[in-house]
Amino acid sequence: MKKTILVFLMFTGSFTYAQQTNYRTVNDSSMEQQNQISLTAPTPIAKKQPILRPYILPAVFISYGFASLGHNPIHQINTNTKNELAEDHPLFKTKIDNYLQYSPAAAVYALNMAGIKGKNNFRDRTFIYAISTAISGIAALSLKSITKVERPDGSANNSFPSGHTTTAFAAASFLQHEYKNVSPWYGIAGYAVASGVGVLRLYNNKHWVGDVVAGAGLGILSTQLAYTIYPLIKKKLFTNKSSQTVLIPYYQQHTGGISMLYQFGK
Predict the structure, then answer these.
(1) How many distinct structural domains can be found in the chain?
(2) CATH code of the domain in which 7 resides
(3) Contact indicator for 17, 187 with CB cutoff of 8 Å
(4) Which residue segment(s) compose the domain that 243 sits in?
(5) How far apart are CA 121 and CA 89, in angstroms?
(6) Average pLDDT, integer, range 104-120
(7) Residue 206 has what DSSP assignment?
(8) Rounded CA gap, 253 and 251, in Å?
């Protein structure tokens, strides 16, 4: 059982960040080649970035989750993990995962307040995270209502995918996107926390392994989509670049509304 948990932590967190790091390495190498070419050619041709590459890993995670819903060896991992956790830690209970799921996103704003600037300004990063939250929240709740998978503890029929894990990985991906050019450790820390949230959902007997893996993929996918579509939204909505007031819709954990945020100072 401990090996299963360790593999999940290492594979989900480390491989997720590794994919982003390899993507940066390719781009850095391309830039270096362009700089060398510019010494002899006045107009180097820019290499197109792979559009679908950032979506491969979340697609694999989500596919694994759906595969776990059938009667197959992958589904058996769900049952075996639940039984071993119940045998080894029958009294385990914690609510810290309810709060940890938001911590990577909170870290983005805390770091900016501390003077460590990320990729985007207050308005842009807030809209990006709001879009990610809306996509992940609506997608997770829709899948829960469609699949109607019973939770391991039998408390409800809305187990797939894990909403907590979806939120945590969406937030971790948000942190990684904002600070990958500052230090790789921010992304590593974010995905480590998100992986911990997923593991705690297993220990709390609230989710199956497939729920957690699918939630991780859905969270990463939601944030990647947010960063992809936001430039189009920004182009349509904003003409005043100095605006510091932000109105954003939100929908998460069965709750919706509109938030108004104002940034004091520059």
Answers:
(1) 1
(2) 1.20.144
(3) yes
(4) 2-262
(5) 44
(6) 97
(7) S
(8) 7
Stated length of the chain: 266
pTM of the predicted model as reported, rounded to 2 decimal places: 0.79
For residue 12, give the DSSP letter.
I
Q: Contact, 203 vs 100, CB < 8 A?
A: no
Q: What per-residue confidence (pLDDT) applies to 238?
A: 78
Euclidean distance between CA atoms 220 and 210, whole angstroms? 16
Pairing of strands 255-262, 245-252: antiparallel
Give the amino acid at 157. N
For 232, other C-beta atoms within 10 Å of its C-beta total 9
List b or e across 113-144, with b for residues whose CB sees 16 or more CB atoms inside 10 angstroms. Answer: eeeeebebebbbbbbbbbbbbbbbbebbbebb
Cα 73 to Cα 9, 190, 203, distances in angstroms: 21, 31, 21
- Single-letter code of the amino acid located at 61: F
pLDDT at 35: 46
Helix (H) or strand (E) holding 6: helix 2-9
The angle subtended at Cα 125 by Cα 242 and Cα 254, nearest 5°, is: 125
How confident is the prediction for the chain on average, in pLDDT? Answer: 84
Token duo for residue 80: 């075996």
- pLDDT at residue 51, as a whole number: 84
